[in-house]
């Protein structure tokens, strides 16, 4: 089964927006064994949209269109769908009921734009959008499926995960693709490749992709086989062989972020965490609290950007900062033990460093970060150099800090 | 003059790589007045590549192809170019000399892969690649230009900036495109459209795109005109007419985030800010500290997730939380004035709400957030409902909180 992805929007053609919808859809389709053969982007032009509809529908079983379903004047996708599927716009009862509920939930009133959003092509099956007013649509002919979805990424992703993927999964026959992503952190791509060594005996016909990011390198295993079961079994075998070589760097699998893994570990152990951040500026607390249920183990965080706040909120002695500087092992340790004590938490975590671009010196360059950790038994700090780029330094420091807690709590190495 | 961008590579079709080349090329072409009408992505398949070549070359004056020029087995672009332009691969003297210099400069030896890189279609004009071994190519027919460039982003970008853009600029006659993006927040796309009303007298031939995101709706103005100056002038006129209607929702232009705008305002006024976050969990502090120089106005932040921490760190009376609940106007106000007082800052900002997915009740549903603000003269809290989705609620609340401070400091409305 092959698919084509069409993204619609002038903002894409002028390069204002990077097309992340394409990659997301491609991954989701590949995951259920549907091969994407082409991706096409056109502007909000009726003629170009109709041409791209016709080309894609002629070639492929599955077509997914995103964009151009909003209520504003530049959105022509719905009209193009009517022309292409030879139908007309009617006010859809199901969509109307959903939009009414949606607006009521937000205490928002009914507007002409909302009315416009109830208008859908007569022969389309409505696909509900749980987090927005623009509905998705499905047109089906024989064994062919044409989806039209909103272009706003978070709405589109929600609809795809909730409705499109489950629906198409049930239609797929033929080869099955299975993927598994192992998430590593604290090791560079090149060192990881070195430690894995010869890949052939590990992979035995599977494919392995190295996907680096500021949070670490993800290893994606891909296996194609006749049945879902065999493909899944082979993936697990490859996983076991990779873990045999680099287990200690792997903190999770799939889409799971380190803060989710850590949240589960803290919950299991019954530990609580308090955080004192300087250079990471709240990013660690933000990540921790992205996880539902984090209030069970996250007691408090403080962002002590000024020296005064380090003394006021954490009891770091002014003299200690004077003697060693705010970016030092001693201050990192005092921050971690201070926040732990103040909060009455099991674990204290701290960061202090130079995020840049200014503030660096030859002895303490931009990118230098001390991460402090304190629990009942120990208090320590680890020195890192995360290179340049303010947001990159914050991102890398937040990951290293969470990983430090994971390793300490699990008593790894 | 219109252009099409073709990106080639299986890694794009499986969604492993996000296609940033497209957006870069689209921006560069638009900047010199060439209108991109279509972007297409195919895999390393001869048939699909040839079809997409033919379609694009039929429709547009400029075609830019990236990817598939490397020495590895799956790179079929060069063969496709030979078939399409009816020519053959020959070892190119100019390319050979350049690759030799390139490898010598890196003390690397000549390999079969390097030999392969000297082989180029006979009738192509070679475009030098200053930072890699794969050459770019130009095929010209009458007033039409077909470029084939390597897919590695930094090599492609270098070639485009050094050679492709200067070359095409000299060929462009006719129109210039100018864009301006106005960033709004606190108003839904549909309400914004309503308040703007009839767009014709505002736009007078310009185009306007509505680009929604969790942080607000961006309005992108596009004007096409004979000279860069006239196009720029018309953009500014459209901007003025839009501001005349919805000025109060516009916090910035271009790529500027609200935290940068607010940082500039706080610096100008000489104000300092302290933040107490509950449901946003550190996200506001994180955004504030993403801005270089924020240590000048950001004194401290606290993430008071537990009730105890609200009392300990902000002096919110236990009785107040008992009487009204942690998610209430009273507690939001007490948090804002508490953090302001504790920090000795000009402004205190607070959030308390229910990010979900659990913890909602009929009276206090998921998405309910109180945002508190305190300065020397006033203390208040505003109630919002940000809908569902934990990360979305945090994102929207952080934006509304920063916007509240911007409006209060600028004494808007």
Overview of this protein structure:
The structure is a homodimer of 413-residue chains. By secondary structure, the first copy, chain A, is of the alpha/beta class. The first copy, chain A, folds into three domains: 2-169, Molybdenum Cofactor Biosythetic Enzyme, Chain A (3-Layer(aba) Sandwich), CATH 3.40.980.10; 176-253, Alpha-Beta Plaits (2-Layer Sandwich); 258-409, CinA-like (Maf protein, Alpha-Beta Complex). Chain A has 16 helices and 17 strands. In chain A, helix 2 runs parallel beside helix 7, helix 3 (46-59) crosses helix 4 (77-84) and helix 5 runs antiparallel to helix 6. Chain A is globular and about 80 Å long. At the A-B interface, helix 1, helix 2, strand 2, helix 3 and helix 6 of A face helix 2, strand 2, helix 3, strand 9 and helix 8 of B.
Summarize, please.
Two copies of one chain form a homodimer. With 413 residues, the first copy, chain A, is α/β, with parallel strands linked by helices. Chain A is 42% helix and 25% strand.
What is the count of structural domains of chain A? 3
Low-confidence spans of chain A: none
The averaged pLDDT of chain A comes out at: 91
Number of H- or I-type helical stretches of chain A: 16
Q: Termini distance of chain A?
A: 47 Å
Largest sheet of chain A: 6 strands, mixed
Supply Rg of chain A: 26 Å
How much strand of chain A?
25-35%
- Strand count of chain A: 17
CATH superfamily membership of the largest domain in chain A: MoaB/Mog-like domain
The structure class of chain A reads alpha/beta
CATH architecture of the largest domain in chain A: 3-Layer(aba) Sandwich
Question: What's the CATH C level of the largest domain in chain A?
Answer: Alpha Beta
Which geometry of chain A do the CA atoms define? globular
Proportion of helical residues of chain A: 40-55%
How would you classify the quaternary structure? homodimer
CATH fold field value of the largest domain in chain A: Molybdenum Cofactor Biosythetic Enzyme, Chain A
Spatial ordering of strands, largest sheet of chain A: 2-1-3-8-7-6
Q: Which chains share the greatest interface?
A: A-B, 93 and 95 residues
């Amino acid at each position: 089964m092959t698919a084509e992805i069409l993204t619609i929007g002038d903002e894409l053609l002028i390069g204002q927006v990077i097309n992340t919808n394409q990659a997301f859809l491609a991954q989701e389709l590949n995951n259920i064994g549907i091969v994407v053969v082409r991706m096409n982007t056109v502007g909000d032009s009726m003629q170009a949209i109709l041409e791209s509809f016709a080309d894609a529908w002629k070639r492929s079983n599955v077509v997914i269109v995103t964009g151009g379903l909003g209520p504003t004047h530049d959105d022509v996708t719905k009209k193009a769908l009517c022309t292409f599927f030879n139908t007309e716009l009617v006010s859809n009862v199901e969509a109307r009921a959903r939009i009414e509920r949606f607006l009521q939930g937000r205490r928002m009133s009914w507007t002409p734009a909302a009315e416009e959003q109830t208008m859908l092509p007569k022969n389309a099956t409505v696909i509900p959008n749980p987090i927005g007013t623009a509905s998705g649509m499905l047109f089906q002919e024989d064994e062919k499926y044409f989806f039209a979805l909103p272009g706003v990424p978070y709405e589109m992703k929600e609809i795809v995960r909730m409705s499109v993927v489950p629906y198409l999964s049930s239609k797929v026959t033929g080869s099955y693709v299975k993927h598994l992503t192992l998430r590593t952190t604290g090791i560079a791509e090149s060192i990881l490749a070195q430690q894995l060594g010869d890949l052939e005996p590990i992979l035995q016909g599977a494919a392995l992709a190295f996907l680096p990011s500021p949070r670490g390198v993800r290893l994606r295993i891909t296996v194609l086989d006749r049945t879902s079961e065999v493909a899944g079994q082979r993936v697990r075998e490859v996983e076991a062989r990779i873990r045999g070589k680099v287990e200690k760097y792997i903190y999770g699998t799939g889409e799971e972020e380190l803060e989710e893994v850590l949240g589960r570990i803290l919950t299991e152990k019954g530990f609580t965490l308090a955080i004192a951040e300087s250079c990471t500026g709240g990013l660690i607390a933000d990540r921790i609290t992205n996880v539902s249920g984090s209030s069970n183990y996250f007691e408090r965080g403080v962002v002590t950007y000024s020296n005064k706040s380090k003394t006021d909120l954490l009891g770091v002695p002014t003299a200690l900062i004077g003697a060693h500087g705010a970016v030092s092992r001693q201050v990192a340790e005092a921050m971690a033990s201070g926040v732990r004590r103040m909060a009455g938490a099991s674990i204290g975590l701290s960061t202090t460093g130079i995020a840049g671009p200014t503030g660096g010196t030859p002895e303490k360059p931009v990118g230098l970060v001390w991460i402090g950790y304190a629990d009942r038994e120990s208090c320590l700090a680890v020195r890192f150099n995360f290179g340049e780029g303010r947001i990159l330094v914050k991102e890398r420091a937040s990951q290293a800090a969470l990983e430090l807690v994971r390793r300490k709590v699990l008593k790894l190495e």
